[in-house]
Structure formats: structure tokens, C-alpha cells
Amino acid sequence: MKTLTMSKVKLSNVNSLTSTVKKNSVYSLLLKILSIFISFWSVRVAFEFTGSKQIYGLWLTILSVISWLGLLNAGLGNGLRNKLAQAIAVNDTQNAKAYVSTSYAFIFVISMGCSLLFLVGTSFIDWRIAFNADYISKAYFSILIMILVLSYFIQLILSTINAICFAYNESTLPSLFTFLSNLLYVICLYILKNLNISGIVVLGVVYSLTILFVLLSASFVLFLKKYKEVRPSFKYVNTSYVKDLIGNGVKFFLLEIAAVIIFTTDSMVITHVVGNEEVTIYQLVMKIFSVFTIVASTVMVPLWSAFTHAYSKEDVVWIKKVVKKILLIMIPLIVCILIFSNFVNLILRIWIGKGIAAPTALIFCVAVYIGVSIWSNFFAYFLNGINKINGQLITVGLGAILNIPLSIYFAKHLDFGAIGVVMATILCLLPFAIAGPIISKKEIKKISQKTKM
């Protein structure tokens, strides 16, 4: 009788977890479809707002580099996500509240400290050199960088709410925040454009304020009601929890550094080796293919914390079932990406105008890159969710070490330009693309053996 009862409880947990993932995926997909339209509209509006392909390419490069500042949470966001998910799974509200409070306090200290260092150091730096932008005045460009960097430090603190949403298996909410900030961003740009107000600094102000407004509003509303039980409080800040949060957080931090080098340095390399105008073509093609990344992440993002919950309860049946389903979806998705590559220039003409066209080789390379990236990301989400990231750290770290030298060699010395940069990135993703499935299979086997004991 006891065995039967336990089986019913386990079945109930499996069904509940599957239902949560499906619900999040469906809602996220609807939001992502809307976000795709808004995102594509925002590119068109921002492109016209900047007034030239060169300035828009510069803007995209700046955003790419600014995103590196996300490393400053030292992997704490991912550490919080996993620790909080584990505390929620066993109804440990007190530890959950302590993890949240300590995370906010720690990220606040890091962000404010870095803000002060930036303000002191920025007067001695000519940021135009870093971005190959000597066609803009030093003072004007410094104002732009200051606005973006300082607002991003504040964003680091506020974006902790995203990790909390993921821990609660409510991945739809971060998607909603992104959608709302993009919508507000486009509406503001559209209004300003019609008022004949433009310029890259204005673009920076609008971009920064819309994100901060949405994150601040979301945090206030959620902590007032939905996440009231884990609302951050000075009373619950415990410095001894920092070590707990950064335990695997250090590894996540190193993984993030590797990911930044592989995924976000391409624009900077293209800027210095080829020029800002080529960044525009590269980023527009990436933007078109991002439709597939968005669709894939809609399914995968809810799985991270779901894998954490399932692993905490040693629910290997559910894990195997989900892995099998995702792999079956992956094959037709990659085929669709390759077929879709034939229509990219047509989409560019309709979307931006006849003056923009991408080389066929670049389109094909980006298609391969997106396919390899989606394949790798699934196994990364699984291994991150169960806190088994050593193998990933080695393979992705190797790719990070090779990425920039290979990119420069292919782009400059072999004269492949932007195409060479993408080729280098693909090669650097391959070690984990091959090792990820092997490591994941071994970890699932370990869980199976553990449950049989």
C-alpha cells in the first residue's frame, strides 16, 4: 500500500513538472512571437534613428560589449537560480529568503563599487579607440558610454528578479519583461523620430530607461504579492551564504566569461578588422536567424529549473523522457534552419530596404552556427540544471581561448572578413557540441544507478 502511495505521489510530481514546463513553453512562445515582431520593428526604427549603416553598426558593437558587464554578478544569478530552486523544491522558505536577500546585497555592492571605479577611470580613457569611432567627438561618445554602463550596473541588481522567476519555474515572466521593455523602447523611438529628435545618445537613454523601468516595476509588483515569501530583507542577509551561492557560481562565472568570448566578441573583431558597416550586415543576418534561437529557447529555458527540481527528487524517468523528446524536435529544426537560409536576402530587402544584402557564404555560415548553438545549448541547460558543469567548462573554455586568435586569423590573414569570424566561432563551439551529449548521457546513467540502489 505504501509503495502504491509513493508511486502515485511520484507520478503526480512528474505530471505537475511536465505541465509546468509545457505551460511556460506555450506562454513563452506566444510572447516570443510578439517579441519577434517588436524586435524586428525596433531594428528598423533604430536603424533609421541612427541615420547610417556605420553609426548603427557602432551601436550594435557597443551593446555587444556592454553585455560583458553581466559577468560582474560572478555567476551569482545562476547560483541563486539553482539554490533557490532546490530550496523551493523542499519547501525551505527561510533559506530561500536568505538566498534572495544575500544575492541582492552582494550584487548591489559589486555594482556600486564598479560604478565608482568606472566614474573615476572614464575621464582618463578615450572610448572611441576601443570602438574604432574617431568620427564622433570624444565628449559626445563618453556621455553615451557613461549612460549605458551606469544604467547596466543598475540593471544587474534589478535583473536578479529574473533568476527568482526561473527558480519558481515561471520562465514566462522574464520573457514578458523583455517583451514589455522592447515594446516601450520602440514606441518611445517612434514618437521621438516623429518629433525629429534623434542621435545615438538619445537612443542610449531610451534603451536604458525602458529596461530599468520594466524591471523596477516588475520587482515591486512581484515582491508585493507573488514572491512575498522571499522578499529581500536586510535581516536575512547572511554573508556565509555567499560561499554557498558562488560555490558553483564561480564555475558559472568562468562559463559566462567563455560564453562572452565566443558569442559576443565577433562584433568587436569585425569592427577592428573589417569595419563598423560590416557589423551591421553580420548583426542583421544574426537577427533574422535569431527567430530559431528564440523558438528553441522558449522550450529550453523552462527546462533548466525543471531539471534542477527533477534531479533533486532523483526523477530519472522524467529526465529521460524530456531529453528524448527534445532530441526528436532538434533534427527537423536544424533542417528548417538550412532551408530558411535561402530566403534571408529576400527578408532583408523587405525588412530594411534594397540597399542591404548579405553574401551567401555569410548566410550559410550563420545558419550552421545557429544550428550548432541550439544543439549545444540544450545539453548546456541540462548540465547547468543538475550542477554538473566541469566537462562543459573545459570544452567551452578551450573554445574561448581559441576564438579571438582564430577569428582574427580567418578574417584578416585569410581575408575571409566577417565570414571568417563566424567560421571561427563554429569551430570553437564544436568541442562542447560533441562532448555535451556524451557527458549528459553519463550523468543520466549515474542518476539511474543511484535510484536503483
Secondary structure layout:
Blueprint: H1 2-50, H2 53-66, H3 76-89, H4 93-121, H5 127-130, H6 138-158, H7 160-167, H8 172-194, H9 200-224, H10 240-246, H11 249-264, H12 266-273, H13 276-312, H14 316-340, H15 344-351, H16 360-385, H17 390-413, H18 418-452
Helix pairs in contact: 1-8, 1-13, 2-13, 3-4, 3-7, 3-11, 3-13, 4-6, 6-9, 8-9, 11-17, 12-13, 12-17, 13-14, 13-16, 14-16, 16-18, 17-18
Describe the structure.
Helix content is 82%, strand content 0%. The protein is built from 18 helices and no strands. The protein has helices at residues 2-50, 53-66, 76-89, 93-121, 127-130, 138-158, 160-167, 172-194, 200-224, 240-246, 249-264, 266-273, 276-312, 316-340, 344-351, 360-385, 390-413, 418-452. Helix 3 (76-89) runs antiparallel to helix 4 and helix 6 packs parallel to helix 9 (200-224).
Mean pLDDT, as a whole number? 82
- Beta-strand portion reads under 5%
Based on DSSP secondary structure assignment, what is the total number of beta strands?
A: 0
Shape: globular
Helix content: over 70%
Q: Low-confidence parts, pLDDT < 50 over ≥5 residues?
A: 1-14
The string of secondary-structure elements, in order, is HHHHHHHHHHHHHHHHHH
How far the N terminus sits from the C terminus, by CA atoms, comes to 21 Å
Put simply, the count of helices is 18
Specify Rg, calculated over alpha carbons.
Answer: 22 Å
**Class from secondary-structure proportions:** mainly alpha
Major sheet attributes: none
